Amino acid sequence: MSATRSARDWLERIHALPLRGRVRIMNVCGGHERSITRAGLRTLLPAEIELIPGPGCPVCVCPEEDIHQAIHWALTAGVTLVAFGDMLRVPIDRPRREIRSLEQARAAGADVRPVASPTEAVRIAAAAPERPVVFFAAGFETTIAPVAAMLAEGIPDNLSVLLSGRLTWPAVAMLLASGEPGFDCLIAPGHVATVMGPEEWAFVVREHRIPTAVAGFTPESLLAAIYSTLRQHLEGRLFLDNCYPEVVRPGGNPEARALLRRTLEVVDAPWRGIGILPASGFALAAHSWDARRRHPPADHRDRPRAGGMPAGCDCARVVLGRIYPDACKLYGRTCTPRTPVGPCMVSDEGACRIWWTGGVRAPAPAEIPAGVQAP
Length: 375
Known about the structure:
Blueprint: H1 7-15, E1 23-29, H2 30-39, H3 41-44, E2 49-56, H4 58-61, H5 64-76, E3 80-84, H6 102-107, E4 111-115, H7 118-127, E5 133-139, H8 141-153, E6 159-165, H9 169-177, E7 185-189, H10 190-196, H11 202-208, E8 212-215, H12 219-235, E9 240-243, H13 254-263, E10 264-271, E11 275-284, H14 291-294, H15 315-319, H16 351-357
Parallel strand pairs: 1-2, 1-7, 3-4, 3-5, 5-6, 7-8, 8-9
Antiparallel strand pairs: 10-11
Helix pairs in contact: 1-12, 8-13
């Protein structure tokens, strides 16, 4: 479905639909949630429509053990640790008197540097060939594809990678397999579909009979996807719709997919606070690139909550769409962007951070209620 209509036109068409009771639409992508919140779409849609943030925040699900490992190397292994900016502020579950993030490790004297792209990591390593450099690469398919390109082109001998790459669809598959997915329709991530192809989401319609549309990041594209899934839901005529045709093509980006296959392997992988999801992670195909094989491992044995969220933090349930961000009892109290407890309040793709930035500054008393109007 084309998104060439104006946002006003799409809203009028949505309001004209004969909705019968609540319809829950999950948006997988953190970028979608950010666009929805900034545009105030929840306040403009009929009260029957409930937009639920989904598992599209790679920073939020990055294993806590990997962050702990990166901090350990930065402090003890004499390495330069580079990572995408959001990762520097994600706290691990340690007492506040101890170093709990890469940002704090940097303040303690470790050589920790934020980067915006893999090419910056290569440039930093090439500028100091005598010093080991570890690139902590966390992200979903759209972020990991450039990492794969970096590896395929060749990296300096002193550069290794701590990879925490994940695929998006397995988290949705896990929700659907649970028997209680918590949503009636799905908006699939446009940038991921650009790389991997929209066909990756066909299983949602084919196997679970749930209306699905791929969307871009403008209000027009998002509203087109919302309208499409609502029409499918009402009429029972289900299909995978592409509401981002200017970017998303059948088959995705063949070159990017080839690079991913050439340099990485798909493996079972842990998601923070959620557990191990089958075929949900990327692993390095060559041992020579792997920082875990070059540097001594951190000792996780003295960390009883290793792998989980901090006590009282509901980030995992927020990521899975089980509760809205402000239903976490820490939201707006001990957990704010200035003093984040969990990763969902750190990342620009984290629902908690997005809602806080959107103006929701106080916790709500209940979990996702019918007809709620959020930002």
